[in-house]
Write a structure and sequence with these properties.
Blueprint lengths: L3 H10 L13 H6 L16 H12 L2 E2 L2 E2 L4 E2 L3 E2 L3 E11 L12 E12 L2 E11 L10 E8 L2 E5 L13 E3 L4 H10 L1 H10 L5 E5 L2 E7 L7 E7 L5 E8 L10 E5 L16 E6 L2 E12 L11 H8 L1
Antiparallel strand pairs: 1-4, 2-3, 5-6, 5-17, 6-7, 7-8, 8-9, 9-10, 11-12, 12-13, 13-14, 14-15, 15-16, 16-17
């Protein structure tokens, strides 16, 4: 069963999150949520948490209202993003051979990702060709990496392992945390998880920019997320750190830019057009998104029986 913290994250993502109107916060409220930040901001001068999260949700186009009745009464705002599908291309990098400033081998990459927040799940499909001229003749590498709640596995083809004789599903338990993290540090996930963290979410200002800091829970307990908003309230940068040494390999820095409605059918839901992700200062991924379907596409993540069996051992 999911731990209490993960259940909180799941509940925050289910169907409709009510985004409460901004309210005035006392210094005591903010101190309980984390106190002064390293720049010296305190509860009395930190931006209102609810207002900030509402602004970030508005910037993404996640927030919708409905008017009812002759008096046009307005229902509470809800989060309308539950599933997302993204396509792009760019460069991914292999592991570094040393701690130098250079990244590892570069691969031209086709990128396809499906995300769901109820239940939390993600499928990342990468087709990579080595950009080194000496190995240009090598066949492209095709990987499909999946995570759903407490399960992580690789597919030899889409839907592998669900029907006898159709592909192979291989357990990947060591990748569970890092794959779940990708789900929650994507801009929509940042807003959802920050809302779920409640009073533990802290708002501060650094170098004139608004910063949202909050802990993750459940499987990712011990990981803190720091999201920096730009002047338009877009999630521009997300950094993570882990208090638990076991999760130290999950330290990441992701930059998002070029926000727009990238859908073939426009929905007014914004998504980043450019993603750069670094680990330990080394660039691991640099992707330009070509197309995004944020109109709750039909994406499913059934767990193959052999994956459930492996996880129960």
């Amino acid at each position: 069963m999911p731990t209490k913290g993960l259940v909180m994250l799941m509940l925050a993502a289910v169907a409709a999150i009510v985004l409460q109107p901004a309210r005035a916060q006392s210094s005591k409220d903010v101190m309980k949520a984390g106190g002064a930040d390293k720049t010296g901001s305190t509860g009395s001068d930190a931006p209102d948490r609810a207002k900030t999260l509402r602004a970030a949700g508005d910037a993404l186009g996640m927030v919708r209202w409905s008017d009812i009745g002759a008096g046009r009464s307005r229902l509470p705002a809800v989060d309308v993003v539950n599933t997302v599908e993204l396509w792009g291309s760019g460069t991914t990098y292999g592991s570094q051979a040393s701690k130098s400033s250079a990244s590892g081998a570069a691969f031209k990459t086709e990128y396809h990702v499906a995300i769901a927040y109820n239940p939390p799940a993600m499928r990342m499909e990468l087709t990579r060709a080595n950009s080194d001229a000496s190995v240009q003749g090598a066949a492209p590498q095709h990987t499909i990496q999946v995570v759903r709640e407490k399960y992580a596995w690789d597919e030899s083809e889409l839907g592998a392992g669900l029907v006898p004789g159709k592909g192979i599903a291989t357990p990947a338990p060591a990748a569970l945390n890092s794959r779940l993290l990708q789900l929650w540090i994507f801009p929509y996930g940042v807003v959802k998880a920050a809302l779920a963290a409640g009073d533990q979410t802290r708002i501060s200002t650094e170098n004139g920019a608004t910063v949202i800091t909050f802990p993750l829970g459940g499987q990712l307990a011990g990981v803190t997320v720091k999201a920096t908003l730009n002047a338009r309230n877009d999630v521009a940068k997300v950094e993570t750190r882990a208090d638990n040494p076991v999760l130290s390999d999950m330290l990441t820095e992701t930059e998002y830019s070029d926000y727009a409605d990238h859908g073939e059918i426009l929905t007014d839901i914004k998504s980043p057009g450019h993603i750069i992700q670094k680990q330990g200062g080394h660039t691991m991924l640099d992707i330009q998104l070509k197309k995004v379907d944020a109109n709750n596409p039909y994406v499913v993540f059934p767990v193959p029986e052999n994956i459930k069996t492996a996880a129960s051992r």
